[in-house]
């Protein structure tokens, strides 16, 4: 079997979700995922009132069953803001100072429309609005888009990984019309099982030295079955690099040091496979979310949250600017951090809720 056939087989095996091989850790899958609720989630009692419209929430078209699920979730889940000890529904209806409530309710309406079970919807909610916000050292990593953009997307990838070859170009295409609002940062994570990936990463870094990282990246992902050293030199010629400098930078030990740094940071943040994608510090887990369906809505929701955050700060007289560093909002009105424990005695969790860990990536 030649390398092209192996690439095609890899696409089928990994289902375009991820190529495994990172050193990070994930929680193990549960025996019965249909009743599992993530450990950090405490549910309120089930609603006793029929569904009602919530101002500002984009419900869309929902069947009676989907609306029932949606209403149960927004009534049982706490608002995704620290210090707001109410359900999402109550947060919206009472106009609490939480910039994420309306967006969280709209998100759960989308999950109901997609046919999620309660466990799947809550797992997705935790991933999207939970407190696990990773602080990333962007250092001298390749950046595309507005350097001061309010939304930062960081992607760790492997040039020989079929899932990366599918996802990374798609992400760049999706972000093409959002350059002012989003900056894309690339991190390198050559998997040990892919022998051509580290040399390809060194070639990309050598191209970066001449201001052509993204041109080299495009060629590497477009030719994943041709990553021998001679191929890498051919691509360098195609993008008109100074070949003498390219060869020196390709062989420079500093390139391996950068790669090892990126790998170590990915491991620290729980990377178990590539691509590993963060949006403003939260992982868009491709075992839970789909790029085509969920990526741009996530970006747009971030922008809505940040705009609402600014409005709330203005009302509160706090002022101040958002960080734009991929770390999420920074004031006590913080928008994206759901309470880990049940916040108050006045909002008592349902005794019937079952705790467990989120499902592991496939």
Please name the CATH architecture of the domain at 143-283.
3-Layer(aba) Sandwich
Rounded mean pLDDT score: 83
Structural class, by secondary structure, is alpha+beta
CATH superfamily of the domain at 143-283: Glutaredoxin
Q: What is the assembly state of the chains in this entry? A: single chain
Overall body shape: elongated
Beta-strand content bin: 5-15%
Residues in helix, %: 40-55%
Can you tell me the CATH topology of the domain at 143-283?
Glutaredoxin
Order of helices and strands: HEHHHHEEHEHHHHHEEEH
Number of strands: 7
Low-pLDDT runs of 5+ residues are 1-15, 27-35, 320-362
If you had to describe this structure to a student in words, what would you say it looks like?
A hairpin with a 2-residue loop joins strand 6 and strand 7 (282-283). The longest helix has 26 residues, at 291-316. Strands 2-4-3-6-7 form a five-stranded mixed beta sheet. Helix content is 42%, strand content 7%. The model is unreliable at 1-15, 27-35 and 320-362 (pLDDT under 50). The chain contains twelve helices and seven strands. Helix 4 (101-113) runs antiparallel to helix 5 (118-129) and helix 7 runs parallel beside helix 9 (229-238). It has a domain at 143-283: Glutaredoxin.
Q: What characteristics describe this protein?
A:
362 residues, alpha+beta, Glutaredoxin, 5-stranded mixed β-sheet, two-stranded antiparallel sheet, 12 helices, elongated, disordered N terminus, disordered C terminus
Helix and strand topology:
Layout (H helix, E strand, L loop, with lengths): L2 H12 L4 E2 L43 H13 L11 H6 L7 H13 L4 H12 L13 E3 L5 E7 L4 H13 L7 E7 L8 H12 L4 H10 L6 H10 L4 H9 L1 H16 L4 E2 L1 E4 L2 E2 L7 H26 L46
Parallel strand pairs: 3-4
Antiparallel strand pairs: 1-5, 2-4, 3-6, 6-7
Helix pairs in contact: 2-4, 4-5, 7-8, 7-9, 7-10
